């Protein structure tokens, strides 16, 4: 199993996603002899999972069923064990696009955190690019390395356990893009500039507070970055629901009033007409996710 490609059958050692519904799924490591509890009963890895195709509907011991999905960076982002705040697909898509990431790109990132963004970057730059990710919290750096190994993407990523503000990214003039998700990004802009290729590249910094953004923009300007832009992305999701709506009572219509060309629209409303109607509609949930953070983008240019 590798996050970089698809394979058909579930094997011992794989990471798989147990899917009970769109808002209820979790990751498992497949192991001979092991079993996983769900609200529908137990799944036995040796008999129920190993050798079955990904996407299979698996019946649990209490008769309910789940689907077993092949992991992708999108699914990992909503299933990974949180060790920090993480970036979600909405921001990640914008970051990937605006940093102009593609297969072969070399990217520097800090901090690694829970590896949500890292997995997405790695898939985008594969098979020939590389991610250098810097995390100063030792356990987080080690856990990220362990997950990259398990997901068979470790050849595309180097994890460094150091303070990016003091020691930088440990590489110079090789990066096409730099991404920062740390509390004081302005302290790392000089190191970001050193990491970027001589001929230029793109940078992005994620910060939840506008004061952090202001300091970062000033630092970017001082270091000669151009095209400095900050934006915030707000996601609105619509659920399809059956809703009931009252039919308004416009009073009685008579035969002679308001007759149309066909002459059949001005009829008296029959007493039997229902007072409400049910139909399907797209509804935005009352509570939607609000502000996550500001994304500041800039370009290191030759001139
Ligand atoms: N973008 C990540 C989450 C990053 S959370 C994701 O999507 O999963 C921020 C991380 O930055 C934390 O793990 C924190 O330990 C790390 N960090 C903060 N300051 C740092 C610094 N100066 N050098 C390196 N890592 C730092």
Automatic annotation (TrEMBL):
Q: Where is the composition biased (Polar residues)?
A: 260-278
GO MF, one term, reads: tRNA (adenine(58)-N1)-methyltransferase activity
Kindly name one Pfam family recorded for this protein. GCD14
Give the top-rank taxon of the lineage listed in the UniProt record for this protein.
Eukaryota
- Record's catalysed reaction(s): an adenosine in mRNA + S-adenosyl-L-methionine = an N(1)-methyladenosine in mRNA + S-adenosyl-L-homocysteine + H(+); adenosine(58) in tRNA + S-adenosyl-L-methionine = N(1)-methyladenosine(58) in tRNA + S-adenosyl-L-homocysteine + H(+)
**Major subcellular site:** nucleus
Q: Please verify whether the record's keywords include tRNA processing.
A: yes
What's the Enzyme Commission number for this chain? 2.1.1.220
Q: Report domain tRNA (adenine(58)-N(1))-methyltransferase catalytic subunit TRM61 C-terminal positions.
A: 64-300
Its family?
Answer: Belongs to the class I-like SAM-binding methyltransferase superfamily. TRM61 family.
Q: What does the function comment of this entry state?
A: Catalytic subunit of tRNA (adenine-N(1)-)-methyltransferase, which catalyzes the formation of N(1)-methyladenine at position 58 (m1A58) in initiator methionyl-tRNA. Catalytic subunit of mRNA N(1)-methyltransferase complex, which mediates methylation of adenosine residues at the N(1) position of a small subset of mRNAs: N(1) methylation takes place in tRNA T-loop-like structures of mRNAs and is only present at low stoichiometries.
- Name this polypeptide is given: tRNA (adenine(58)-N(1))-methyltransferase catalytic subunit TRMT61A
Organism encoding this protein: Engystomops pustulosus (Tungara frog)
